[in-house]
């Protein structure tokens, strides 16, 4: 196909969602689509520690031909059998006890985040990734079918469709919603939903109220401690949810069980929904982490004692956005629906975004002239589920810390926690992709891009 006829897709952001989309597109229609990834960092790397995958995103990875490579870096490669998902334990007392075990039909599989991203990096064709490219703005006009990207180094690039996969601090989202706001500003000046002021406010990330203390600990070191105290190592090898009032800890093994991944959360209700003052990520001492869990059961004390090199993260999220797309620009992953990590679904949702969007952009009926219909269908399919997961994740955090309407009713909590993941089986990603295609084709036939903003 002539270069002038290829659909040019620019992806801003080289994290999990952006690279997932790039790999999916290059494997689906390599002659039809030109893909460019623009990443501000000098290399394609991930910060953080553990990451979890469940059946839906795993099936997508397999459909891209990457199942075998991801299985090599999984802590326990999935085999389709039911697996213990979480062990919930009351731990903010001297004598802790398990109160629920959550079994998932397909399991809950853990990875080191950097190892996970590397599979995408290795699957990316040469020449697609452009590093050190920090997007500062984009521009387009009604008379042009192109989007022009402007980078901090003074360079520019053009594309037919821009995908903002640039995270919770998304430059793409900020500009998109500033444009939405400017368009609405002549209609109303107040802060009700749909007003210009409201649209600018809602696009900004806010503090969820949680801070997280993250630490990676050599598994051998902890095994020696637990075995010496006669505990065994089940609590180290299982995915544990150590629950307490206003605090909880999630832990599980990664890197083929050589590393113990631990994240301790502390909730500050007075900060929920507000701006977070100070750096979002900072290194902290082991003593600070220990102080947060003083009085908890001995096993937790042993974990905290070994939390060397810990960091503290402000957990930011987005309020539900009224749109993911505008014109030839769309949002993906955290840029669209940044969420708390209490369902372990943020990366999985980004992969689902990439799957649906890649199916639409690579469809033989998609052209430069009807791109808006593809983006409208993507939004129509992905917005309801992704925003449901945002809400469910917050609800999970409340349940883990006995701050939900179910309080400390352990039996009821167990039932409700099981139900929190029911969305995993509502429809398969393949069914959603087929539905998205039908929505797009219907819009093309009717020339109906949808109401949007």
Give an account of the 3D structure.
With 453 residues, the protein is of the alpha/beta class. Helix content is 37%, strand content 24%. The protein is built from 15 helices and 19 strands. It has helices at 16-28, 55-63, 67-73, 113-123, 171-185, 196-202, 219-228, 234-237, 286-292, 298-305, 334-337, 346-361, 371-400, 410-419, 429-446; strands at 7-12, 33-39, 50-53, 83-90, 97-104, 109-112, 129-131, 135-139, 147-151, 156-159, 161-164, 206-218, 240-244, 247-254, 259-267, 281-283, 311-317, 325-326, 329-331. The strands form 4 sheets. Strands 5-4-13-14-15-12-17-16 form an 8-stranded mixed beta sheet. Strands 7-2-1-11-19-18 form a 6-stranded mixed beta sheet, sandwiched between helices. Strands 8-9-10 form a 3-stranded antiparallel beta sheet, with helices on one face. A hairpin with a 4-residue loop joins strand 9 (147-151) and strand 10. The protein is globular and about 70 Å long. The model has no long low-confidence stretch (mean pLDDT 91).
Features:
alpha/beta; 453 residues; single chain; globular; eight-stranded mixed β-sheet
Averaging pLDDT over every residue, what do you get?
A: 91
Low-pLDDT segments: none
Q: How far do the termini sit from each other?
A: 35 Å
Q: What is the approximate shape?
A: globular
Number of helices: 15
The number of distinct β-strands equals 19
Rg result = 22 Å
Strands in their spatial order, largest beta sheet: 5-4-13-14-15-12-17-16
Give the DSSP E fraction (strand runs of 2 or more residues): 15-25%
Described by strand count, sense and barrel closure, the largest sheet is:
8 strands, mixed
Helix content: 25-40%
Structural class: alpha/beta
């Amino acid at each position: 196909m002539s270069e002038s006829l290829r659909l040019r897709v620019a992806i801003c952001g080289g994290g999990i969602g952006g690279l997932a989309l790039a790999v999916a597109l290059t494997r689906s229609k390599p002659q039809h689509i030109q893909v460019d990834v623009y990443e501000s960092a000098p290399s394609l790397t991930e910060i953080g520690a553990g990451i979890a995958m469940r059946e839906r995103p795993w099936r997508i990875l397999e459909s891209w031909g990457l199942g075998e490579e991801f299985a090599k870096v999984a802590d326990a490669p999935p085999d389709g059998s039911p697996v213990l998902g979480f062990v919930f334990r009351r731990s903010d007392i001297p004598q802790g006890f398990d109160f629920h075990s959550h079994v998932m039909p397909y399991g809950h599989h853990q990875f080191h985040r950097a190892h996970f991203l590397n599979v995408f990096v290795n699957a990316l064709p040469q020449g697609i990734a452009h590093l050190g490219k920090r997007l500062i703005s984009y521009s387009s006009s009604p008379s042009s079918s192109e989007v022009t990207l402007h980078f901090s180094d003074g360079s520019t690039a053009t594309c037919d469709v821009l995908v903002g996969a640039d995270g919770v601090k998304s430059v793409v989202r900020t500009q998109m919603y500033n444009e939405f706001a400017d368009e609405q500003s002549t209609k109303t000046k107040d802060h009700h939903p749909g007003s210009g002021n409201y649209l600018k406010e809602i696009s900004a990330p806010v503090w969820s109220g949680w801070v997280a203390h993250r630490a990676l600990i050599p598994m051998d070191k902890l095994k020696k401690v637990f075995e010496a105290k006669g505990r065994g190592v089940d609590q180290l090898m299982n995915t544990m949810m150590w629950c307490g009032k206003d605090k909880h800890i999630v832990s599980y093994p990664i890197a083929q069980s050589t590393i113990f991944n631990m994240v301790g959360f502390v909730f500050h209700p007075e900060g929920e929904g507000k701006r977070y003052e100070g750096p979002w990520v900072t290194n902290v001492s082991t003593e600070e982490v220990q102080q947060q869990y003083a009085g908890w059961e001995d096993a937790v004390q042993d974990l905290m004692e070994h939390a060397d090199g810990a960091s503290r993260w402000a957990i930011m999220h987005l309020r539900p956005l009224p749109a993911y797309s505008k014109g030839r620009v769309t949002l993906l992953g955290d840029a669209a629906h940044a969420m708390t990590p209490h369902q372990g679904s943020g990366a999985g949702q980004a992969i689902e975004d990439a799957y649906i969007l890649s199916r639409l952009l690579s469809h033989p009926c998609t052209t430069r002239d009807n791109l808006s219909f593809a983006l409208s269908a993507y939004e129509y399919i992905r917005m309801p589920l992704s925003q449901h997961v945002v809400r469910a994740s917050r609800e999970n955090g409340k349940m883990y810390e006995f701050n939900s309407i179910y309080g400390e009713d352990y039996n009821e909590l167990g039932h409700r926690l099981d139900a929190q993941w029911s969305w995993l089986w509502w429809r398969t990603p393949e069914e959603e992709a087929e539905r998205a295609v039908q929505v797009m084709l219907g819009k093309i036939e009717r020339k109906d891009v949808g109401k949007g903003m």
